[in-house]
Prior knowledge:
Layout: H1 2-31, E1 35-41, E2 49-58, E3 68-77, E4 84-88, H2 94-98, H3 105-110, E5 113-117, H4 137-151, E6 159-164, H5 166-177, E7 184-188, H6 200-205, H7 211-226, H8 228-241, H9 250-267, H10 282-292, H11 305-315, H12 331-334, H13 337-342, H14 355-366, E8 371-376, E9 397-402, H15 416-430
Parallel strand pairs: 4-5, 4-6, 6-7, 7-8, 8-9
Antiparallel strand pairs: 1-2, 2-3, 3-5
Amino acid sequence: MKKKILLLSSLLLSTFVLFAQDCNVEEMLKKIKAVSSFEKIEKADTTRQYYLMKVTQLLDPENPAAGTFEQRVMLGHRGYDRPVVVVTEGYGGDYAFNSPRYMEELTYIMDANILFVEYRYFSGSMPQPCNWEYLTVKNSMTDYHNIITSFKPYYSGKWASTGISKGGSTSIFFRAHFPEDLDVSVPYVGPLSGAVEDGRHESFLERVATKADRDAIRNFQIELFERKERLMPMFDEYCLNNNLVFRVPKSNIYDLLVLEYQFSMWQWGTPTNTIPALDSDDKAIFEYFVKMCGPDYFAAGSNIESFFVQAVKDFGYYGYNIEPFHKYVDEEDIEGYLKRVLLPKEFADVKFDDSSYRFTTDYYTENDPKMLLIYGEVDPWTASGITWLRDRNKQNVKVYIQPGGSHRARILNMPEDMKNEILEQLNEWMQYK
């Protein structure tokens, strides 16, 4: 009987503690003025209490009269004394909000709280009506600053930011704009591009990895151009079946995809031994091609159109090397493709603003924040990364390039010695053990 009473008491106590924790978190959220609404959500991870929130942000931080929008944020509360990881997502956050098993690497490593912030002008954080004037790097950084300063009084542990790809770039930009908000930054595979077509990616791809691998990709591209007339009917049918509409003729889209194929192969570290034999039949060649490089990327109304808008405004992008393919493509059809193909005509005359690029580059040249930068050796985005900081005698900025690594480079898939060095440094700075 005593055992049953003790067990019942234990269960009641556990329920009470969990209820009290829920109340504490919800009381905190009610106190934060910027949080306009929140709801508890369930995840497979039961060690944290998860809440999906909407946070009210100024469209233009320097002009409140411009109005506001609602930004989506997810809190995974582990404990008020645990570190906090701010995920500076560069796109929409549906995958994190909706997936029951989402867990970001740094949060897992440090058993930390998580604040996942969706980027303005994406998915559920799209202003209504949409005025593209306010989608800038500078305004976006203020969004993250407002969220961090709203939550910081409640959490006594160290604070870190992290993000992948454009989210990694966001983490890089953010540390430069608001260096005092964070203790540590851990951007993954984040570029810092200085123009609409930055120019460094093309030369990077001409020397990446081995000549045999580069030749295998180049030869397949040539094969795709040589077979274009035969493959175009399949291409047309594929686009029709998938309801893909483009701003330029499908023949131009085909050419762009052949050029994009090289970038895509290296970005994702796809082994060249997966390339079909060049004497394979048309069906095999085509199916592999669209699997590796889908034409939906160039379709009008893409769900990442906000990214292309920002790319031409102040984020930057990449171009293609068409020198080896002059026999097959017209330079005029490729030049300026980002504005002509990926965006509506209203962006045709937008001038690239490199002020955030210059501001951020200057900051890292002159300062030495605690920062762990993760890149992949064969990832084309590494070409425009801030890997040059390795040569600047920094004590705190540390650059790690995964040997043979792609856009999938992470701390936990690094070589063992490199991984251990990163984890040791991270623990020294964040004090999570």
